[in-house]
């Protein structure tokens, strides 16, 4: 016999009816469904005592955020790179001829400086 969707629905309906009837017989004529359990909201605060929006896990000492020492080392080295790039950029801009168009290399250097500064800013925020 070929199993079709209609046949499967009929069979599953018969099984569900039999289970419901057995449940009624076991409970003395009453059908009890299990009570639903509430699911915790993914947006619920982790700390219920914290003000709204302030329940983050940022370590705080004396009101200042603490960053790991490795992050500070990275920030200092990136700041030195930014200083070196900016100094070189300034030197090349002063050396460039104002009568001609700006070299594409200067645009790329400015973009690199901006990109590195944005990375440092994001690292300091997180």
The biggest sheet, with number of strands, parallel, antiparallel or mixed sense and barrel status, is: 2 strands, antiparallel
Structural class estimated from helices and strands: mainly alpha
Spell the H/E element sequence. Answer: HEEHH
Number of domains: 2
Distance between the termini: 64 Å
User: What is the rounded Rg?
Assistant: 34 Å
Share of β-strand residues: under 5%
Question: Which stretches of 5+ consecutive residues score pLDDT under 50?
Answer: none
The tally of beta strands, per DSSP, is 2
| Shape type | elongated
Mean pLDDT: 77
The portion of residues assigned to helices is 55-70%
Number of helices: 3
Numbering strands along the chain, what is their spatial order in the largest sheet? 1-2
Model description:
There is one protein chain. With 126 residues, the chain is mainly α. The chain folds into two domains: 30 residues; 62 residues. It has three helices and two strands. A two-stranded antiparallel sheet has the order 1-2. Strand 1 and strand 2 form a beta hairpin. The two termini are 64 Å apart. The model has no long low-confidence stretch (mean pLDDT 77).
Short summary:
By secondary structure, the chain is mostly helical. Helix content is about 55%, strand content about 5%.
Q: How would you describe this structure in keywords?
A:
single chain; 126 residues; mainly alpha; 2 domains; 2 strands; 3% strand
How are the elements arranged and paired?
Elements: H1 5-26, E1 60-61, E2 64-65, H2 69-95, H3 104-125
Antiparallel strand pairs: 1-2
Helix pairs in contact: 2-3
